[in-house]
């Protein structure tokens, strides 16, 4: 008979989810004096590299919420909130970049290559020196194809630079449906189906899509093709309060209370940076429509301040004295924030110009009847 063996206790999981062999997650306790468990994950999407950062963050957060509180309603609220953030265009593009390994020359045909390989081959056609090494990870994003709404995945995969630095042509947009239904929800369902939770049912039955923010609703321009059907539609919401109206401003915001309403909705840091003569109460005999124009100017000023702060940070990082920042590093969060603020700044300029044009026409029509 073999000699008796002394077994060493490595760790205890409480609570835990055991998906399959080498795929599990739980709170790990390694000794008796450990007061709080440490999240330990093996083989689950939160520690895998073949997905996008959004899936990693959501799976990790959901596991922590489930193990710490045991409250499924908190998990559901978080999942729906993040899905709504993606659908309304408030999510960062950086969290949805997928990097997959590419092995050019090993595929049966060019048409059967996976999406990352398709992106790599398009890069090679543009520049023969831009060829990935064998096994190198190529980043890509999945967008709405402007020419074929029902295009296959390999036709919708694009370089992140095409989405970030799009100049003219068809306006690309992240394919929120693909990321939610093919990436996020399947990863969560593999975990939560073990405890009898239908994650797809949460999205199908209780998901309510909110309105995009005014700065993310660019005015409709018919001079180019769009990536989605919604981009052809003209917004019928006020750019200040989101109330339904036919013009750029509703009747309430075009009156004398627009500035006070806008000031009440702005964050504290904006109010602190606003000059004192702007923070002062508007006179009662102020011209109708002027507070709305001033509120739009204040919004534009806030965007300019934030964009300028990011540009200065990028200039310090580059060691450059030029405001034309040339850095295009996809790993830098400042790049995505700077480009988004730049787009919102252009939209705010257009909103302000349209509002002033509307108010001037309204003033001319009013004076004509006097």
TrEMBL record:
GO terms for biological process: double-strand break repair via homologous recombination; error-prone translesion synthesis. Keywords: DNA-directed DNA polymerase, Nucleotidyltransferase, Transferase. One of its GO terms (cellular component) is zeta DNA polymerase complex. One of its GO terms (molecular function) is DNA binding. It is an enzyme of class 2 (transferase). It holds the Pfam family zf-C4pol. Its EC number is 2.7.7.7. Transmembrane segments: none annotated. It catalyses: DNA(n) + a 2'-deoxyribonucleoside 5'-triphosphate = DNA(n+1) + diphosphate. InterPro entries: DNA-dir_DNA_pol_B_multi_dom (IPR006134), DNA/RNA_pol_sf (IPR043502), DNA_pol_B_thumb (IPR042087), DNA_pol_palm_dom_sf (IPR023211), PolZ_Rev3 (IPR030559), Znf-C4pol (IPR025687). Residues 293-338 form the C4-type zinc-finger of DNA polymerase delta domain. It comes from the Eukaryota. Residues 2-194 form the DNA-directed DNA polymerase family B multifunctional domain. This is DNA-directed DNA polymerase. It comes from Chrysotila carterae (Marine alga).
């Amino acid at each position: 008979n073999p000699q008796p063996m002394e077994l060493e206790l490595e760790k205890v999981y409480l609570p835990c989810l055991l998906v399959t062999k080498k795929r599990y997650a739980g709170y790990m306790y390694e000794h008796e004096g450990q007061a709080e468990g440490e999240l330990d994950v093996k083989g689950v999407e939160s520690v895998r590299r073949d997905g996008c950062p959004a899936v990693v963050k959501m799976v990790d957060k959901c596991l922590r919420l489930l193990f710490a509180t045991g409250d499924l309603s908190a998990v559901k609220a978080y999942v729906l909130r993040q899905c709504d953030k993606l659908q309304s265009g408030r999510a960062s593009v950086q969290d949805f970049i997928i990097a997959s390994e590419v092995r050019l020359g090993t595929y049966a045909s060019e048409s059967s290559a996976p999406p990352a390989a398709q992106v790599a081959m398009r890069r090679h056609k543009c520049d023969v020196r831009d060829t990935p090494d064998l096994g190198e990870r190529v980043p890509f994003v999945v967008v709405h194809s402007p020419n074929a709404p029902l295009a296959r995945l390999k036709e919708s995969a694009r370089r992140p630079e095409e989405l970030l630095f799009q100049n003219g042509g068809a306006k690309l947009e992240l394919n929120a449906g693909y990321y939610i239904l093919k990436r996020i929800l399947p990863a969560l369902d593999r975990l939560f189906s073990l405890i009898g939770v239908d994650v797809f049912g949460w999205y199908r039955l209780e998901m309510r899509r909110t309105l995009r923010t005014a700065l993310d609703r660019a005015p409709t321009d018919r001079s180019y093709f769009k990536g989605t059907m919604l981009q052809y539609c003209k917004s019928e919401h006020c750019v200040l309060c989101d109330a339904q109206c036919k013009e750029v401003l509703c009747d309430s915001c075009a009156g004398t209370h627009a500035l006070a309403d806008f000031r009440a909705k702005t964050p504290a840091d904006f109010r602190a940076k606003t000059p004192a003569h702007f923070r002062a109460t508007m006179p009662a005999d102020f011209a109708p429509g002027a507070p709305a124009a001033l509120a739009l100017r204040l919004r534009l000023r806030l965007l300019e301040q934030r964009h300028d702060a990011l540009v200065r940070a990028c200039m310090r990082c580059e060691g450059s004295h030029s405001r034309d920042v040339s850095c295009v590093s996809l790993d830098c969060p400042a790049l995505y924030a700077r480009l988004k603020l730049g787009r919102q700044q252009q939209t705010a300029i257009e909103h302000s110009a349209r509002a002033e044009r509307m108010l001037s026409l309204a003033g001319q029509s009013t004076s004509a009847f006097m």
